[in-house]
C-alpha cells in the first residue's frame, strides 16, 4: 500500500508567523532568485529586518482608538511640492520632527525616514546603507547621489513607537529639475512602495495640476493599489461648491492615470493647526475624513502579518514567472 507524500514538520526552532514566513522564503524562494538573477530585474532579496514584528499596544488619545499592534508598519507620503506632506506628519506627531521645513516653496529635498528613539538622532544615508539592521539597507543600490539625499530622523514621539513615516521630496514640474536630481526618483518610489505598508498620495485642492513626473510615479505604483490612500489636502481653502468640482476633477484625472477598475477613495483633509478655527461649512466633513485617515493608520498593525504574507507571495509569483522567461 502506497503512503501519501508526507510533508516535513516545521523546525521546532521556528516560533511565530513572521519567523515561519522568513524561513519559508529563505528555503523556497531565495534559491530561485539567485539561480535566475531575479535581483538584476527587480529589488534585492528581502532582508531579515523586513520580517521583524513584535506585539505592542497603542492608544491614540486624540480619537480614543485602542489597538492591538503586532508589528511596526511604515507609511510613505507622496505629493508635489508644498502639498502638505510634512504638515501632515507634524499633525500626526503633534509637532515638527527635527529638520522638518514647511513653506510655500519646495522645502523638503530629501527622503526623511522618521522613526522612534529616546534621544534625538539624525543619521545620514551613507551610514544607514552600512547598517545591516536597517530595514531599507538595500536602498544602497541607487548609489551615493541618492544616499546623500536620504536620512533617518529619530526622536521621542509616542506614535513613532508603533509606526515609522517616510517623508519624500516634493515632486517637481520642470524637466530640467527632474534631470538634475542625479538619481531615478520613480525607481526609488517603486522600491519603497514594495516595502511599505501604506502609501498616501496628497493633492492640493488649490492647484490640481498633476505633473508628468507625478503621473509617472502614480503609474509605477501599479500592483500596490491596495496600499494607496488619496488625500485632497487644504480643503478648507476652497468653497464647498468648488470642492465638489475639484474632487470630481481629481477622480477623473486619476481614473485616466491609474490602471485599476476603481479609483481609491478620496479623503478631504487639512493638517495645518488653525484650520478648525475657520468658519467653514466643510469643518465637520473635514474632521470626519481626518479622523478616518487617523483610524486607517491606527489599524495598519492589525493587518501587518497579512501584508507581509501577501508581499512575499507576490514576490514568489513574480520569481516563478521570471524563471519561465
UniProtKB/TrEMBL annotation:
Superkingdom of this protein's organism: Eukaryota
Pfam families: Dynamin_N, EHD_N
Entry annotated with the keyword Protein biosynthesis: no
GO CC entries: endomembrane system
Signal peptide segment: none
Localization (cell): Endomembrane system
Membrane-topology annotation of the record: Peripheral membrane protein
Domain named Dynamin-type G: residues: 69-301
Keywords on record: Membrane
PROSITE patterns to which the protein is assigned, alphabetical: G_DYNAMIN_2
Molecular function as annotated in GO: GTP binding
Keyword NADP: no
UniProt-recorded name of the protein: Dynamin-type G domain-containing protein
Amino acid at each position: 500500500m502506497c503512503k501519501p507524500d508526507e510533508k516535513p514538520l516545521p523546525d521546532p526552532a521556528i516560533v511565530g508567523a513572521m519567523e515561519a514566513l522568513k524561513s519559508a522564503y529563505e528555503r523556497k524562494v531565495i534559491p530561485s532568485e539567485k539561480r535566475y538573477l531575479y535581483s538584476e530585474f527587480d529589488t534585492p532579496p528581502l532582508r531579515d529586518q523586513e520580517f521583524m514584528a513584535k506585539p505592542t499596544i497603542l492608544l491614540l488619545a486624540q480619537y480614543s482608538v485602542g489597538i492591538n499592534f503586532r508589528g511596526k508598519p511604515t507609511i510613505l507620503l507622496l505629493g508635489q511640492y508644498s502639498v502638505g506632506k510634512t504638515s501632515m506628519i507634524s499633525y500626526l506627531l503633534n509637532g515638527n520632527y527635527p529638520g522638518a521645513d514647511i513653506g510655500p516653496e519646495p522645502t523638503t529635498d530629501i527622503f526623511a525616514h522618521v522613526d522612534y528613539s529616546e534621544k534625538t538622532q539624525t543619521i545620514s544615508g551613507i551610514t544607514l546603507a552600512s547598517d545591516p539592521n536597517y530595514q531599507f539597507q538595500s536602498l544602497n543600490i541607487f548609489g551615493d547621489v541618492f544616499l546623500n539625499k536620504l536620512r533617518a530622523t529619530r526622536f521621542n514621539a509616542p506614535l513613532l513607537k508603533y509606526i515609522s513615516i517616510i517623508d519624500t521630496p516634493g515632486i517637481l514640474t520642470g524637466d530640467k529639475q527632474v534631470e538634475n536630481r542625479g538619481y531615478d526618483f520613480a525607481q526609488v518610489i517603486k522600491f519603497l512602495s514594495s516595502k511599505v505598508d501604506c502609501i498616501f498620495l496628497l493633492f492640493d485642492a488649490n492647484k490640481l495640476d498633476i505633473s508628468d513626473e507625478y503621473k509617472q510615479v502614480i503609474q509605477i505604483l501599479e500592483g500596490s493599489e491596495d496600499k494607496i490612500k488619496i488625500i485632497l489636502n487644504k480643503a478648507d481653502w476652497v468653497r464647498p461648491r468648488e470642492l465638489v468640482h475639484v474632487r470630481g476633477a481629481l477622480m477623473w484625472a486619476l481614473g485616466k492615470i491609474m490602471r485599476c477598475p476603481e479609483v481609491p477613495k478620496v479623503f478631504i483633509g487639512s493638517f495645518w493647526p488653525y484650520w478648525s478655527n475657520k468658519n467653514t461649512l466643510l469643518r465637520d466633513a473635514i474632521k470626519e475624513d481626518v479622523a478616518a485617515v487617523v483610524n486607517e493608520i491606527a489599524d495598519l498593525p492589525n493587518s501587518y502579518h497579512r501584508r507581509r504574507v501577501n508581499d512575499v507571495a507576490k514576490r514568489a509569483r513574480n520569481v516563478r514567472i521570471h524563471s519561465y522567461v
